[in-house]
Amino acid sequence: xxxKIPKTLPAYHALREERVFVMTDDRAEHQDIxxxxxxxxxLMPTTVDTELQLLRLLSNSPLQVDITLLRMESHTxxxxxxxxxERFYVTSEKIMHERFDGLIITGAPVETLPFEEVDYxxxxxxxxxxSAQNVWSxxxxxxxAQAGLYRRYGIPKRELSQKLFGIFPHGVxxxxxxLFRGFDDEFxxxxxxxxxxxxxxxxxxPALTIQSExxxxxxxxxxxRDGREIYVTGHLEYDPxxxxxxxxxxxxxxxxxxxxxxxYPGGDPAKTPVVRWRAHAHLFFSNWLNYVYQETPFNLxxxx
Length: 304
Fold this sequence. Notes:
Shape: globular
Oligomer: single chain
Number of strands: 12
Largest sheet: 10 strands, mixed
């Protein structure tokens, strides 16, 4: 089954060209099933690219997924195409009386700021608080993971001595869980961040379980409430050239940036990167949707 998105969303045509099965509103009205309702808080400056990356992964499932895109009304985006957010996104206020099977909160380029100094922090904090009773499972990504850990558990973040940037191997601590069904003992995932949540604080929180980590990257995935809260510090959703674009963007701005680790063949930025994380990215998101489908009450009004 497909994801359901507006036919006019730019991602629709890109996914169709990739032979990904997407469904328009008209066709979905004739489906006699309850689709999963998933909301995405897209905080990334690469608005359209991030939509495509996440929708591509959410589509790799036999389940129909209805997507709601959320924006922060308290923040003015300088990077989204003109009118894009107003046309395809709703503000958080619009969904506060709805319930969802799943919610994704993306990363954001604000990680070196204290949380309270982010211009939309109060609004995002309200969404995180709302999700505790109104969403079955929340998937936090990168800075979104740090924000969730801080808001719910007071776990601080610290600045790294240099940006963690590249493709890194990760291990699985909790092997026999739904999220890691079918995973290899070691898998690769992109990382792109200047900060990290405190590992000792995560480990000391009784509600949290560290599911995946490495000495080099620290905690990669932690969960709480049997998977109803998932914190992913990296970017499994990244497409083949995302790190390349970030690297060349920072070079052009004259920022200190190292060549992304384990990314270009032979470490040579002149060569095309080889994708080695795509299969596990699809598997992870499919496992998450399957978990949500199996565990969410059929009647979302029964969420607690």
